[in-house]
């Protein structure tokens, strides 16, 4: 039986699965790491014995770091704000789903919509993955609207 002193030190690192996964693995490769992910595997193999990686939804990573389930994680700043996670942001990595272009959150409406500014959202219903961020934005602009949660592909859910 190993004692605590005999165990190899390691960190448990959360990596985003899904749309950011391939770009994150590419980023790690550029940093000199080799990461292997099996089909439907959530525990990738990384060529550093001191790093134990986990593939987790980006939306959850900051909460898992805050709660001590992960030692560190790569996630979007938007999810740290959305989750109101009390974590230390060590570095800002500029990359996105496809390639190395950063992502912007936007408010989109059909061209035929009479909505032209955030104030036009007064009393409307808004579907978003980022409920907290959206509510903060609306409050900052003095707008009261119903904000409901939506898991992805929100742009196709408009009436």
Give the gist of this structure.
The protein is α/β, with parallel strands linked by helices and 159 residues long.
Textual characterization of the structure:
This protein is of the alpha/beta class. It has two domains: 9-83, Periplasmic binding protein-like II (D-Maltodextrin-Binding Protein, domain 2, 3-Layer(aba) Sandwich); 105-154, 3-Layer(aba) Sandwich (D-Maltodextrin-Binding Protein, domain 2). It has four helices and seven strands. The protein has a three-stranded parallel beta sheet. β6 (125-128), α4 and β7 (146-149) form a beta-alpha-beta unit. It is elongated, with a radius of gyration of 19 Å.
Sheet having the most strands: 3 strands, parallel
- The name of the CATH topology of the largest domain is D-Maltodextrin-Binding Protein, domain 2
Strand order of the largest sheet: 4-1-5
Put simply, the count of helices is 4
Helix content: 10-25%
Q: State the low-pLDDT regions, or none.
A: none
Q: Give the termini separation.
A: 61 Å
What is the architecture of the largest domain at the second tier of CATH? 3-Layer(aba) Sandwich
Radius of gyration: 19 Å
* Strand coverage percent: 15-25%
């Amino acid at each position: 039986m190993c004692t605590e002193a005999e165990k190899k030190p390691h960190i448990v690192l959360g990596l985003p699965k899904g749309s950011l996964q391939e770009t994150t693995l590419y980023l790690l490769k550029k940093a000199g790491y080799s990461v292997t992910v099996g089909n439907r595997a959530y525990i990738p193999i990384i060529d550093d014995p001191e790093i134990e990686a986990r593939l987790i939804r980006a939306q959850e990573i900051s909460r898992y770091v805050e709660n001590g389930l992960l030692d560190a994680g790569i996630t979007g700043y938007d999810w740290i704000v959305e989750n109101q996670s009390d974590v230390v942001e060590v570095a800002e990595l500029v990359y996105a789903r496809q390639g190395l272009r950063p992502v912007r959150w936007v408010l989109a409406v059909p061209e035929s919509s009479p909505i032209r500014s955030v104030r036009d959202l007064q009393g409307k219903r808004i579907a978003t993955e980022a409920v907290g961020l959206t509510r903060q934005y609306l409050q900052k602009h003095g707008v009261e609207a119903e904000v409901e949660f939506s898991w992805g592909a929100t742009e196709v859910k408009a009436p």
